[in-house]
């Protein structure tokens, strides 16, 4: 099996590869394309995270106040209600999602929407050990807080090691022309050499 995933899809590819290897199947390519290791933001200092959250919070307040001013009076209550739902989901999303999975029903209304459920699943996911090698391809133009350090955590779970490749573009442009050509060339180069030993019982 050759598997790969971009962004959140990289987590899906990783878990698929892990389950296949646990089942005794052979996995060759496991390419994680600009898929940071879950929880990488926690490696920043407490002060840095606090400053980032403060900036984000202020920007959200500013945007919402500006939006309220543009609304008709009857539109304001549902708008504020949706903002409250978003806030609760942001603050309590991960534990609420884990409990939703355990009891088999959505604890928050946002989890009834597939995109929100997928998002929370990604945030709640914690990778297990992978008995193989991983190829990580990350965008050269990522913001400073998302340098190669954001992907280094994969070395904790890949017993076969991790190979890192920097490719042109930013997260949202690396899959577009002209950068995607360089990405595909790199993937082909990886595929042309031996990738993994056959799985053992």
Task: Provide structural commentary.
There is one protein chain. By secondary structure, the protein is an alpha/beta fold. 46% of the residues lie in helices and 10% in strands. It has helices spanning 8-22, 46-70, 76-103, 114-124, 179-191, and strands at 3-6, 30-33, 134-139, 162-167. Strands 1-2-3-4 form a four-stranded parallel β-sheet, with helices on both faces. α1 (8-22) links the parallel β1 (3-6) and β2. α3 (76-103) packs across α4. The protein is globular and about 65 Å long. Residues 197-201 have low confidence and may be disordered.
Give descriptors for this structure.
single chain, 201 residues, alpha/beta, 4-stranded parallel beta sheet, 5 helices
Task: Describe this structure in a few short sentences.
This protein is of the alpha/beta class and 201 residues long.
Please describe the topology of this protein:
Elements (H helix, E strand, L loop, with lengths): L2 E4 L1 H15 L7 E4 L12 H25 L5 H28 L10 H11 L9 E6 L22 E6 L11 H13 L10
Helix pairs in contact: 3-4
Shape: globular
Structural classification: alpha/beta
Count of extended strands = 4
Low-confidence stretches: 197-201
Averaged pLDDT, please?
81
Number of DSSP helices?
5
| Largest sheet, strands/sense/barrel | 4 strands, parallel
Walk across the major sheet and give the strand order. 1-2-3-4
- Please bin the fraction of helical residues: 40-55%
Q: Cα-atom Rg, whole angstroms?
A: 20 Å
Residues in β-strands, percent:
5-15%
Give the N-to-C terminal Cα separation. Answer: 17 Å
What is the string of helix and strand elements? EHEHHHEEH
């Amino acid at each position: 099996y050759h598997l790969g995933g971009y962004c959140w899809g990289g987590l899906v590819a990783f878990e698929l590869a892990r389950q296949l290897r646990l089942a005794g199947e052979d996995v060759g390519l496991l390419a994680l394309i600009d898929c940071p290791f879950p929880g990488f933001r926690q490696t920043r200092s407490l002060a840095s995270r606090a400053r980032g959250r403060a900036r984000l919070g202020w920007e959200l307040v500013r945007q919402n106040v500006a939006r309220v001013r543009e609304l008709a009076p009857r539109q304001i209550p549902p708008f504020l209600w949706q903002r409250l739902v978003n806030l609760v989901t942001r603050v309590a999303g991960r534990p609420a999602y884990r409990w939703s999975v355990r009891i088999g029903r959505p604890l928050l209304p946002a989890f009834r929407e597939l995109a929100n459920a997928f998002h929370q699943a990604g945030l709640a996911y914690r990778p297990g050990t992978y008995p193989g090698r991983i190829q990580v391809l990350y965008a050269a133009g990522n913001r400073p807080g998302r340098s190669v350090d954001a992907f280094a955590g994969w070395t904790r779970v890949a017993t076969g090691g991790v190979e890192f490749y920097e490719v042109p573009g930013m997260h949202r442009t690396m899959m577009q022309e002209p950068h995607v050509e360089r990405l595909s060339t790199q993937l082909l180069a990886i595929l042309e050499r031996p990738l993994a030993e056959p799985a053992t019982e």
